[in-house]
């Protein structure tokens, strides 16, 4: 985490089944000023528990998981009334997947291959707004 001690960091939880990709995401996102990676999971059940336990502000998730799917996780988070901002970062980026994720409650959707930097920029913007306001950022959604 690169956040000043006087500011509350944006708590980010990663849900990705491929360990090297998850490690890359953790390194890249954890280097953003004001971001703290508070947990990681590779399956939906562990993710739900971890998101709740860590009180994550943002959940970055893939659609393909070792057990369950990202869409199932989005539905579960919506049912639980989780205040976490949900960001889908996946290689499955066809319009069908985008629409299914939006219907399931995703607030942002990015193609892992072509929009990784855009996803990082979005998290940077959310983190800066979070730190500046001292509360959850609920700005415009990119889907």
From TrEMBL:
It holds the Pfam family Response_reg. Keywords: Phosphoprotein. Residues 11-127 form the Response regulatory domain. InterPro entries: CheY-like_superfamily, NreC/VraR/RcsB-like_REC, Sig_transdc_resp-reg_receiver. PROSITE patterns: RESPONSE_REGULATORY. GO terms for biological process: phosphorelay signal transduction system. SUPFAM superfamilies: CheY-like. SMART domains: REC (SM00448). The modification 4-aspartylphosphate is found at residue 62. This is Two-component system response regulator.
């Amino acid at each position: 985490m690169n956040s000043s001690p006087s500011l509350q960091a944006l708590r980010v939880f990663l849900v990705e089944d491929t360990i090297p990709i998850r490690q890359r995401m953790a390194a890249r996102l954890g280097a953003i000023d004001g971001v703290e990676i508070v947990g990681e999971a590779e399956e939906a059940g562990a993710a739900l528990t971890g998101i709740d336990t860590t009180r994550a502000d943002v959940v970055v998730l893939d659609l393909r998981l070792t057990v369950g799917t990202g869409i199932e996780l989005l539905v579960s988070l919506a049912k639980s009334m989780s205040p976490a901002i949900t960001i889908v970062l996946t290689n499955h980026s066809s319009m069908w997947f985008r629409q299914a994720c939006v219907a399931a409650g995703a607030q942002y959707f990015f193609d892992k291959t072509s929009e990784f930097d855009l996803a990082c920029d979005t998290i940077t913007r959310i983190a800066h707004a979070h730190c500046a306001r001292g509360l959850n950022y609920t700005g415009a959604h990119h889907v």
